[in-house]
Structure formats: C-alpha cells, structure tokens
Amino acid sequence: MNLSPDIDICKAILTKAVLTATNLIHFNIPNWARLLLPVVKYLGLTIACDIQDVTIATDPYHQGFIGYADFLFFSASNYEEPAPLITAFPRLKARAGYRRRPG
Question: How many structural domains are present in the chain?
C-alpha cells in the first residue's frame, strides 16, 4: 500500500473547506486516508469514519481511524450480540488519546 495523498494539496483543499463553513469530513478506510486524519483534526473539523465490517474491535488497521473519529460507523454483522463491540469503541478512543486542536 504505497499510495499517499499530496499533503500540501489536501491541506489547501481542507483549509478552503473550513473557510466555506464545512464542518464534517467523512472518511472511508483506505490506508492512505489515515495520513489526512491529523490534518483534518488540526483544522478542527468533525471527522466521521466508516470502518466497515468489524471482526474485532482491536484490529490494528482500524485504530487510527477509531482514535480520530468523532462519529464512527461500522457493521456488526459478525456479532450475534453487538453490545460488547459497541461499548469497546469509546474505551479504545479514550485510550488512544487523540485530541481536537485547542480553541
């Protein structure tokens, strides 16, 4: 997975989004998208992530997306009882320690 976005171009686009009153950026989970998460968080935008079909809450691939997400979407179709999975995500996010830019 060697794709990566041009961070400077993305910063310019995202900064324009902030100036035009965009409040929410929605992410899917291609590997390159994780490089934009800190930029979006720094700009103070709300982040929504769809981490797709979850098999385990602690899947390392999803952790950065979970940590940065203000809103998390996922499928619990692999779980007969999804409550433990649902309650795991806030704990994982708190443990990750990602913070919104102050002020």
Answer: 1
